[in-house]
Backbone:
């Protein structure tokens, strides 16, 4: 009989991808995904370490699950409880100590060994900790078939990071940069398209630092990889995330100009508009360098939409530094952004800096700066959405709307679009005339129901 598996995913798209692959690894030993932890035979928390108090949230969720596990055991059943992701990688032994009822703690590099870990936990009724960076590569051992729910899919091509931004734990939790070989990536992309993917988002912690071995034995960059993926018949759209500004090559910018399937949208995190702050963050770009990249991108693709990440109140950030950030936002006109107050990650160089009074930015100052920044950024987003009214965009209709008779999709620029459309249009690309815009979404009307945009 099928066993129920519930996976709760926190954080970025790379965790979403890992959760999908974990489900695929467990399917051959009888686990079937469930959308609730109630009565589940296995629950896995796929955690993220980026936000403050991430670990505390995991422990609080584990506390809740402990009761469900006890109830199941009282009824004669068993719930296997697992923790993976960056919290597991960063403090695996601590998780087992603080939550001794957890059965499995494993890192993002070892989940291909899950069937074996599950067998060990079940046989021995003991805890299993596997947070190595193993010699054997997990991608070689993952199932070759893929399941796709809907029309969009993630495809991890690169993992790890060697950049060591001073505020970030990723280089410690995900290890050194690694790029999957081109042949392996292409096989997976083809499997995703066969399983129904119309759009693929290529993922990597530093995706544009991709340097996998090509089908010709040479080292390939991301641009070349995307060209090959774009040749797959049946695939209409490609996106990639997350890019590191200093790795933005001319070749990749050119790819934006001449690959129609590559969407005119790029997430390019700058983090601050002040060079002194970028330096303290150990980012390898300056503001001028970033602006040059934007100019080149806009020359290659005039309508390209840019989004970014910002951290305010980084240790040592002055009022003048912050004003530079506001100036940059005004100048570039990002259409979407993710902005946060700086919060220290234990063990990082920035946390050391933050512990010194002369560098620490008080919470109230951070809050005021964040509010000002978000007001400016939200203004840009709204202006961009309003500018779309009257335009017709190809929209990939991804899911059912809340109101019956409506579908929700994405424009090429990642805008959410709500449109009255028959259900059989779900997972297809339709031309939509934008009629109304708000800060978070657009509304539109179907124009030409038979046409696909980029096929
Ligand atoms: S580039 Fe910087 S922020 Fe991004 S994962 Fe690497 S260290 Fe972290």
Residues:
């Amino acid at each position: 009989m099928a066993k129920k598996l519930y996976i709760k995913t926190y954080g970025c798209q790379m965790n979403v991808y890992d959760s999908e692959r974990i489900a695929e690894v467990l399917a051959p030993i009888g686990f079937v995904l469930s959308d609730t932890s109630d009565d589940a035979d296995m629950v896995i928390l796929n955690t993220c370490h980026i936000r403050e108090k991430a670990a505390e949230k995991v422990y609080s969720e584990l506390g809740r699950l402990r009761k469900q596990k006890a109830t199941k055991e009282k009824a004669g059943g068993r719930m296997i409880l697992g923790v993976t992701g960056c919290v597991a990688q960063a403090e695996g032994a601590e998780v087992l100590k603080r939550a001794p009822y957890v059965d499995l703690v494993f890192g993002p590099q070892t989940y291909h060994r899950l069937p074996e870990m599950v067998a060990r936990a079940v046989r021995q009724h003991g805890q299993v900790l596997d947070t190595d960076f193993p010699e054997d590569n997990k991608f070689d051992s993952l199932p070759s078939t893929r399941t796709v729910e809907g029309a969009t899919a993630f495809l991890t091509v690169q993992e790890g990071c060697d950049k060591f931004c001073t505020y970030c734990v990723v280089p410690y939790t995900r290890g050194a940069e690694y790029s999957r070989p081109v042949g392996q990536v292409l096989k997976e992309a083809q499997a995703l398209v066969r399983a129904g993917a119309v759009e693929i988002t290529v993922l990597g912690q530093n995706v544009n630092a991709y340097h996998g071995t090509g089908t010709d034995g040479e080292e390939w960059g991301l641009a070349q990889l995307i060209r090959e993926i774009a040749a797959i018949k049946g695939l209409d759209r490609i996106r990639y995330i997350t890019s590191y500004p200093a790795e933005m090559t001319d070749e990749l910018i050119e790819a934006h100009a001449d690959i129609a399937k590559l969407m005119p949208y790029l997430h390019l995190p700058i983090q601050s508009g002040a060079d002194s702050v970028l330096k303290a963050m150990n980012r390898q770009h300056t503001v001028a360098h970033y602006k040059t990249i934007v100019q080149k991108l806009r020359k290659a693709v005039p309508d390209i939409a840019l989004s970014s990440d910002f951290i305010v109140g980084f240790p040592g950030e002055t009022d003048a530094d912050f004003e530079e950030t506001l100036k940059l936002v005004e100048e570039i006109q990002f259409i979407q952004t993710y902005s946060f107050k700086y919060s220290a990650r234990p063990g990082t160089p920035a946390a050391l800096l933050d512990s010194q009074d002369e560098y620490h930015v008080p919470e109230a100052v951070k809050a005021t700066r964040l509010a000002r920044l978000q007001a400016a950024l939200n203004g840009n987003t709204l202006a961009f959405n309003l500018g779309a009214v009257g335009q017709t965009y190809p929209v990939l209709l991804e899911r059912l709307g809340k109101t019956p008779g409506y579908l929700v999709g994405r424009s090429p620029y990642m805008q959410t679009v709500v449109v009255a459309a028959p259900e059989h249009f779900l997972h297809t690309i339709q031309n939509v005339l934008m009629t109304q815009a708000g800060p978070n979404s657009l509304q539109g009307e179907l124009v030409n129901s038979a046409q696909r945009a980029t096929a």
Residues 48 and 449 are 41 Å apart (CA to CA). The chain has four domains: 3-130, 144-263, 301-388, 392-448. The mean pLDDT is 93.
